[in-house]
Write a structure and sequence with these properties.
It is a single chain. About 30% of the residues lie in helices and about 20% in strands. The chain has about 450 residues and is α/β, with parallel strands linked by helices. The protein folds into 2 domains: about 1-50 and about 380-430, Roll (Urease, subunit C, domain 1), CATH 2.30.40; about 55-370, Metal-dependent hydrolases (TIM Barrel). Strand 8 (about 55-60), helix 1 (about 70-80) and strand 9 (about 85-90) form a beta-alpha-beta unit. The structure holds zinc ion (ZN).
């Protein structure tokens, strides 16, 4: 007797789609296709697409850290509702810098997540020696900042070279926030000297040049050392292209981007201020800029999409001035919806959506083929999608503690209607189901080596 059969859906993979029944036993995909066996539960999924659950490889749930902004209970519920079955989380306010801090965080989260989760760790410039032990303890990636941000110190070129050499020997994967320290500092000094506090400081302070210079340096050091590195939240085409050149030269690099770099305009910050303060900031100036990003995602130069979910409530966003209010946007529950809509609009194939949201992040961070695929033997993490459902994104539907979304008022076509983690239903019709604690910690590839 099987546990579950999902009948009549069209399965979407990066390499094509086909109608097939999906059979689940003991939390795993037992078989795909016709099977002469009864199941304890049968779900009729006619008219729906079955996707591998989304792997959102860059979220901040601030647990522990700043539970007034988000915690794992709310963040993972929002993830489930949005079709996300695995998150990779790290929190700047309570960084994980050694193996003991990682073990403590895993223990803290034992009963707090509805979806499966892996954990990133932070590189501190004076603690590079701790990296190999941190990696083998199971960190999913080692997060590096090239400029001091969110209270995390900058790793400058000399330390970065050391850190990537050490990481390359250990086989570690880095996730790198690329903005040049010297350029952002000079911009901040000049803007403050001019007594600027208007919302226009954000794109001037966090400039295209600062991002491009840092990304070029990181990509080059990745090639020189052979360290595996992901360029985080890549915001505009020249950065994608300069990383692509180092990839073509053999560097083990990947290019992450996020929906805000495909949907939000640079000038929105002038009207919305704190609610568009995130970094790198939005860069789109016109429709052609958005087309250029979609082309790079479709072609695979942007390898994968994450959210960089970093919520604050409206009240928290309004604390202080534009210099001191929190960076970040909520988004873990809207990313799949926005990408489904892009597929509906014909900007990108549904197969590539599955590749960029599911298979690629699972592969990069060592979770594949347990995650990121519906092949037999994989975890039965399934997101059932109605590709034709039209709705308007609204603040009232947001489950994150943020309570708002920068995409409010936007009509999207395509919605997650049921989300399963290891065969258990964790969300239906945008509402979470079941108790936190079902989600398990997934050690990174260093722990499995
Ligand atoms: Zn982030």
């Amino acid at each position: 007797m099987l546990d579950l059969t999902i009948r009549g859906a069209v399965l979407v993979t990066p390499r094509g789609r086909f109608a097939a029944d999906l059979h689940v036993q003991d939390g795993k995909v037992a078989a795909v296709g016709a099977l002469d066996a009864q199941a304890a539960r049968v779900i009729d999924a006619g008219g729906l697409l079955a996707l591998p659950g989304v792997v959102d490889s860059h979220v901040h749930f601030m647990d522990p850290g700043d539970a007034a902004r988000e915690d794992f209970v709310t963040g993972s519920a929002a993830a489930a509702a949005g079709g996300v079955t695995t998150v990779i989380e790290h929190t700047h306010g309570a960084p994980v810098r050694d193996a003991e801090e990682l073990r403590r965080k895993v223990a803290h989260l034992r009963r707090r997540s509805l979806v499966d989760f892996a954990l990133g760790a932070h590189v501190w410039p004076d603690r590079v020696g701790d990296l190999p032990a941190l990696w083998t303890a199971g960190a999913a990636y080692l997060k590096v900042f090239t400029c001091e941000t969110h209270g995390v110190p900058a790793v400058l070129a000399g330390d970065l070279l050391q850190c990537f050499r050490t990481g390359a020997r250990a086989g570690a994967t880095f996730l790198v926030h690329c903005e040049d320290q010297a350029i952002t500092r000079e911009r901040e000094r000049a803007l403050r000297a001019a007594a600027r506090t208007d919302y226009g400081v954000i794109p001037e302070w966090r400039s295209r040049e600062a991002e491009a210079v840092a990304a070029a340096e990181v990509a080059l050091i990745a090639r020189l050392t052979g360290a595996r590195a992901v360029i985080a939240h890549t915001s505009h085409p020249p950065v994608v292209d300069l990383v692509a050149r180092e990839r073509a030269a053999g560097a083990p690099l990947w290019v992450e981007s996020c929906p805000q770099y495909f949907y939000l305009r640079e000038n929105e910050v002038l009207a919305h201020g704190p609610f568009r303060k995130f970094t790198p900031p939005a860069r789109l100036r016109d429709a052609a800029d958005a087309d250029a990003m979609w082309r790079r995602l479709a072609a695979g130069a942007i390898t994968h999409i994450s959210t960089d979910h970093a919520p604050s409530t409206r009240a928290q966003k309004l604390e202080g001035d534009i210099w001191t209010c929190h960076f970040g946007l909520p988004g873990v529950e809207t990313t799949l919806a926005l990408l489904l809509d892009a597929a509906h609009e014909g900007r990108i194939a549904m197969e590539r959506v599955v590749d960029a949201l599911c298979e690629q992040p699972a592969r990069i961070y060592g979770l594949y083929p347990r995650k990121g695929t519906l092949a037999p033997g994989a975890d039965a993490d399934v997101t059932l999608v109605d590709p034709a459902r039209s709705r308007v994104l609204a603040d009232a539907d947001v489950l994150s503690k943020a309570g708002w979304t920068p995409y409010a008022g936007r009509r999207v076509v395509g919605a997650a209607v049921m989300t399963f983690v290891r065969g258990r239903l964790v969300a239906r019709e945008g509402r979470p189901e079941g108790d936190p604690g079902w989600g398990e910690w997934l050690p990174g590839r260093g722990a499995m080596a």
